[in-house]
Amino acid sequence: MSKKVIRFGVIGCGLMGKEFASAVSRWIHLEGLDFIPRIEAVCDKNIDATGWFADNIPTVRLVTSDYNDVLNDPDIDAVYCAVPHNLHARMYVDIISSGKHLLGEKPFGIDKAANDKILAAISANPGVLVRCSSEFPFYPGAYKLSQWIREEKFGKIIDVEAGFWHSSDLDPNKPINWKRQIEFNGEYGCMGDLGLHVLHVPLRYGWRPQNIRAVLSNIIEERPGLHGNLVPCETWDNATLACEVEVKGHKFPMTLSMKRIAPGHSNTWFLKVRGTKMSAEFTTKNSKQLSYLVYQSGDEQSWRTYDVPNVSAYKTISGNIFEFGFSDSILQMWAAFCDELAHGDKMSQPFQCVRPEEAAFSHTVFTAALESYREGKTIFL
């Protein structure tokens, strides 16, 4: 089969840059695709960070500390950019304006003003595909739940809970990093870091909050700095947002939670949807299981849990009985981006990466959450 080669540059050679490169190296794990990504350029301000890519990705031909070198390369089609939030506006705008397609990281700007600049660049360059990374909905259980939402199997929605929890900041002796500093992470704190993962599926199906009441927590207020001295933690550890959603004249509550300090949760994404005809729950904590309840008038109300087959958005060489994991979700997400880049609205499956308008509305949500907490009241959008 002749395959369309999509030539990528990677800007930001940290953890997620490596995950992307690893996924590209595993492309043979996918079956039946007529496109394939190839990493040809890598960039990081810390040039030492590019060494892993040069050593492990044989297709890399450009290694640089200046991202403009990547943007000025006429043979690069698309860019994956994973840099701190304070760099999003400048770098994303430059990438888009250069005509390169972009898969960026959340939250697509350190704040709403930064996101507005990115949106303006997108509007000025309509031929450029721009999407945001969000891999968890590509877990088979989450993907099946999303399919049920699309098929309107739930009847009238009773309520929705969505969240992303981990305990990476539970240790008070963990040194401070950029995500705890407003200068680099922004005032959103954990919402900017985790929130778009939580909102991806709800916003995709039109569950847009009409109002928000937020509770924000800064649990560990100081951490060891560069020289071991304690320095202030400026951003929020945890956030819980109580929202009201209206769909087709029907209102229901939706709870969104983002936690960097959730004891016992290493990296837990979950979605719970309860309706008058069907309810379902999925969590990556038990990633092989999907729980659901189907109800008709007079029926018993009985939850069922089954092991979800390893059947993903894009067919793989893995047998259905094997486990699906985080690296697999990254691979599926990249396939969705490349599929849309290669085929537009004729993708082989219907679930896209986060769209710019969804990222933009997340900024509306997070900005309202900050105001809600400051004012101690519900904010209407």
UniProtKB/TrEMBL annotation:
Superkingdom per UniProt: Bacteria
Gfo/Idh/MocA-like oxidoreductase N-terminal domain boundaries: 6-121
Matches recorded under InterPro entries: Gfo/Idh/MocA-like_OxRdtase_N, Gfo/Idh/MocA_oxidrdct_glycsds, GFO_IDH_MocA-like_dom, NAD(P)-bd_dom_sf
One of the Pfam families matching this protein, by short name: GFO_IDH_MocA_C3
Keyword Oxidoreductase part of the UniProt annotation: yes
Residues in GFO/IDH/MocA-like oxidoreductase domain copies: 144-280
Keyword line: Oxidoreductase
Identification of the protein by name: Gfo/Idh/MocA family oxidoreductase
Organism field: Alicyclobacillus dauci
